Every structure is written in C-alpha cells, then in structure tokens.
Amino acid sequence: MCFGRRYDHNDPELLSVVDFSNEFGEVAASGHPADFIPVLRYLPSRAMELFKDINRRFNFFVAKIIQEHYTSFDKGHIRDITDSLIEHCQEKSGGEDACVPLSKEKVISIVNDLFGAGFDTVTTALSWSIMYAALYPDMQKRIQEELDQVIGQERRPRLSDRSTLPYTEAFILETFRHSSLLPFTIPHSTTKATVLNGYYIPKNTCVFINQWQVNHDEKLWKDPSTFNPERFLSAAGTEINRTESDKVLVFGLGRRRCIGESIGRWEIFLFLATLLQQLEIRLRPGEKVDITPQYGLTMKYKKCDCFQIKKRLPTKSSP
Fold first, then answer.
1. Higher-confidence residue: 263 or 193?
2. CA–CA gap between residue 51 and residue 35 (Å, rounded)
3. Comparing 102-106, 168-172, 182-186, 252-256, which segment has the lowest mean pLDDT?
C-alpha cells in the first residue's frame, strides 16, 4: 500500500525491513532519560547513538523508494500512498503560478510514520491471535464453524463478511484486550493547560494513555485475566455488544487516536479469517508455552517453536 509492490518472503529488502522493525522496538523499548529530559540527548550515549543509527538507516531505505517514485511518477496513474502524497504536494494552491509543495523530507517522514506504525503492530496482533487460537482449540473450532457456515469453502473471506461473523470479531476484540499488545499509546502533547479528574496538566506536557491498565481494570471487566471472547457478544450471541467493544483500548482514544485504526482492524480480520478458514493450528501435545509478554513498544511472547499446522479442506479462491 505504501510502495506499490509485493515482496517475496525471502526478499533481502523485505528481510531488512523486518530487522529494522525488530531493532527499533528493542532499542526504543529500553527507554532513555532523554525521553523525559530532552536536553540529555546531547550527552554521549551508546543507546542514543544506536537509536539514531536505526532511524538513519530506515530513513535511507524509505528515501530510496520515494526517489524511485519521484522518477517514475505519473499523475494519471497513481499506484500507491507514496504517489498520492507526491500528487498532493505538487498541486497548485492560490494563483496559477503559486505552488507550495511539501518538501521531499516531509514526504519521507509521512511515509515513514505510515509504514512504521502499521508494520510491527499488525504482525504482533496476528501473532497473538494465532497463539490464542492454538491455546484454545474449542474457540478455534467455533470460529471455523462460523466461517464454514457463513462463507463456506468456495471463496476467501472478504471485508463485507465481517458483520456476519460475530464470534470471529469477538475473538479479535478479546485478543486486543487480553494481550494489550500496545500497552501505551505513542506520546502525545497537551496543546493547552487542562485539568483531568482533578489533576492539573500544563501546556506542552508529554502524555500517554495506559491502555494495558484500562484493558485489565477489574471495575470495567469481569475476570479480566480470563480469555473470554463471549464477553463481547450480545445475549443471543448473534452480534457484537458495542457497549463492551468500545471499552477496549488498542488504537488510542479521542480525536488524536490512531489514524490507521480502520485499516488495521481490516487487515487483522482478513488475515485471521483466511488462515483459520484453511488451516488448523495446534501446539505440540505436552508442550508448555510461556505467553508472558515481553515489554516493549509492542508486547510479544517469547519465540515459540511448538506450533503444528495442517491444512483443513481444499479451498478455491474467489473469482
């Protein structure tokens, strides 16, 4: 979507992006005093230099692809998000000769944010959903029965199916809540002095939402430590209880919530529904799996080599 290309799983460029993402998550999650006292970024620090180096390398990777887009740009054939940004930046404003485009650096920054924010988060969410499906085979079977009944085996799941698969959607919501894969929102800043629940917060204060706490608050949830998708279903079990689903925090809150929320939810639904339509995912019998999350920008469980995957039934792609 960002670059208009599809990568083979063994493509060196794709693998380098995966490495960037992992390195960035590890370094950023370790924290640094400069996160809270900005002037400290000017002091010698190996962690800070490593953080800057990762960002430089990733910016170079994105800048190279964007330069290729500038070279081959055709206003009559917009291929992806990057082309759309270039088109927007080249649009004239005001008089016929007035054109104030964003700089190439701004385009790089925007694409960097869009790509970086959606890459690790979606893969981590899918990783958790696969783990929960393996840990709770009865729930996995119920999802598959719902998929077979609503979609069948003759075509792949589509976005239009989402509203007719309430248990699948409830399973995804409970994955978000129970794993709280994004424990905190990205940093935001107050634009004016404000008071929240009696606490005075000055202008230009860095603030976060503690999403993990909200998703595990015993005042909000019955048995929050239990993985239970049915908490999000209506009494009849035929639709999502929106009062409950709206309490789950994973994309932030309010006007400044994640702009990629819709596409993130769509991606996770399509990937998980397609996987479970075609595959049975199990853990090796007798193997104990540790799903204690490892703290970071995204919460991941330790590497697991205990998965057993087999094809369910032959399927045909949609026309």
1. 193
2. 12
3. 102-106
